[in-house]
Specification:
This protein has about 475 residues and is of the alpha+beta class. The protein has helices at about 1-20, 70-85, 100-115, 120-135, 140-145, 155-165, 185-200, 240-245, 250-260, 305-310, 330, 345-355, 365-375, 385-395, 405-420, 425-430, 440, 450-460, 460-480, and strands at about 25, 40-45, 45-55, 60-65, 170, 180, 280-285, 300-305. It has a 4-stranded antiparallel sheet with strand order 1-2-3-4, covered by helices on one side. It has a two-stranded antiparallel sheet with strand order 5-6. Helix 4 crosses helix 7 (about 185-200).
Length: about 475
């Protein structure tokens, strides 16, 4: 009895609301107006409903249009065009979880790295920045208000900026270091901005609905970070550099001499080979794509070899030598003999190619690991080795903790400027980008050696004298 009553009640409800919620297909359009090709228009109660197949969502979607038939046709044509050109309607696809957006963007970064567009180290830096966003967005108070990545707004962006300004982190992620404020919250904001730009791009992530507005667009106007005052001496002065060169042992001396006299990045000595030395006294600091290495900025440069530095390299110019220019301490001191020690650049490139060919679906990160292991087998040193030697020397000299390896580049750039070296030459030696103006393509650096030697004589002559003295004392040091 109860079942029959319930069935009768349902039939009455259906008959009552059927006409109100029934979809009526619109087939008759005003004269001169062609119907949309990929979108069906239905009239339902007092509004219109669009139905279409979304190739990117791989399912039928519907969208309500409040208004008259003209408004429905106009919106249908917009969706038509997007499906034709972008294979996506741009309509909302339901809830887009923040975790899903982060996962998809990280996969996209990895694909770019594997394609050679960006380096694996850039991917690592982006991942670190995005982890700050994950920590922020997963807070209960935030996720309750913004459960979906599609409903983020300017207010959320400002909350995230305030979160970064107040965040305390350890330098370089070292767990035992003292926490401090983030040095560059703008970098993290820019990474998040680029993630949402990619997600909204129909040719990129194509994850956002049509009309989505990226709240992270626009320049960040204010943060807690303050630009340093560049007035005064760099953290490492010429006299301090002289103390360090005097304190160096025979292993450290050539490494730090090259860092000081050429303003090299601390990782660049790790990729210098005897083959980079030319017969006319130049040292080439170049990208080695056949070894999976590119300099920062992907820029090649050559450096004039000073006579004292040339002497520090020993018999390099007297005999045909090959292999890495600088080796790690254990190899230098004969305590370790890797099986590829003194292998030529060409031999290492061939071995790198063979090792990579053995890996199916080689990723950029895996290629980096193969490269680093190959250099390890060749007796090479790493950035960490150079940093360790620097801290050892800085401790012996009681230098302040503010002094870092990068300050050698500050010293070099400042000295070259004080010596009157033209800006184009300084940018070239530092490995920095020139302007995009046409004049950059027309300007040739044909006086590099002259400008460099004049600048060294004017600003670094005390350091040259120390190296000359150390070279002269080397036979006695070895005998002792």
């Amino acid at each position: 009895m109860n079942t029959r009553i319930k069935k009768k009640k349902n039939e009455n409800l259906w008959n009552k609301y059927r006409e109100k919620h029934r979809w009526i297909r619109v087939n008759d359009f005003p004269g001169g107006i062609a119907p949309p090709e990929k979108v069906r228009i239905y009239h339902q109660n007092d509004y219109y409903r669009l139905q279409f197949w979304d190739p990117s969502a791989k399912k039928n979607l519907t969208e309500r249009v409040d208004g008259d038939l003209v408004a429905a046709i106009s919106r249908a044509r917009e969706i038509d065009e997007r499906i034709k050109h972008f294979r996506s309607s741009g309509a909302s696809r339901g809830t887009l979880r923040h975790s899903y957006l982060l996962q998809q963007y990280k996969q996209h970064l990895q694909i770019r790295a594997d394609a050679g567009e960006i380096s694996p180290k850039t991917v690592t830096r982006y991942h670190s920045a995005l982890e700050h966003y994950r920590s922020f967005i997963e807070q209960s108070s935030v996720i309750a208000t913004y459960p979906s990545a599609t409903n983020v707004n300017r207010e959320l962006a400002l909350q995230f900026q305030a979160y970064l300004n107040n965040l305390q982190i350890t330098p370089n992620g070292h767990p035992n270091s003292r926490k401090r404020s983030m040095a560059s919250p703008e970098y993290v904001l820019n990474v998040v901005r680029s993630m949402y730009v990619w997600a909204a791009d129909p040719d990129g992530g194509n994850l956002m609905p049509g009309g989505f507005r990226n709240p992270y667009l626009g320049k960040v106007r204010q943060s807690n970070s303050v630009k340093p005052d560049l007035f005064g001496d760099p953290e490492i002065t010429v006299s301090m550099a002289g103390q360090l060169l005097s304190e160096c042992d025979s292993f450290q001396l050539p490494i730090f001499a090259f860092l000081i006299f050429y303003g090299l990045r601390a990782s660049e000595p790790c990729f210098l080979f005897h083959e980079n030395l030319t017969g006319d006294d130049w040292l080439k600091v170049i990208c080695l794509p056949q070894l999976g290495y590119t300099t920062k900025g992907r820029r090649d440069k050559r450096l004039p070899l000073l006579e004292p530095l040339k002497s520090l390299l020993g018999n390099t110019f007297k005999e045909e030598q090959a292999g890495l220019l600088f080796q790690r301490r254990a190899v230098y001191e004969g305590k370790e003999k890797p099986y590829l020690v003194n292998a030529s650049l060409e031999q290492l490139q061939q071995k790198y190619k063979k090792r990579c060919q053995k890996i199916l679906n080689l990723s950029a990160e895996r290629g980096l690991q193969i490269r680093d292991q190959l250099l390890q087998d060749a007796g090479g040193l790493k950035y960490d080795h150079i940093e360790h030697e620097f801290h050892r020397l800085a401790g012996q000299l009681s230098w302040p903790p503010q002094a870092t390896l990068k300050d050698f580049r500050h010293l070099f750039s400042t000295a070259m400027m004080n010596a009157g070296m033209p800006e184009y030459y300084r940018k070239y030696l530092m490995g920095h980008a020139f302007s995009k103006a046409a004049i950059s393509n027309y300007t040739h650096l044909d006086k590099l050696r002259e400008h460099f030697q004049a600048a060294i004589a004017r600003e670094f002559q005390p350091l040259v004298d120390i190296v000359v003295k150390r070279v002269a004392d080397q036979p006695r040091e070895k005998a002792a």
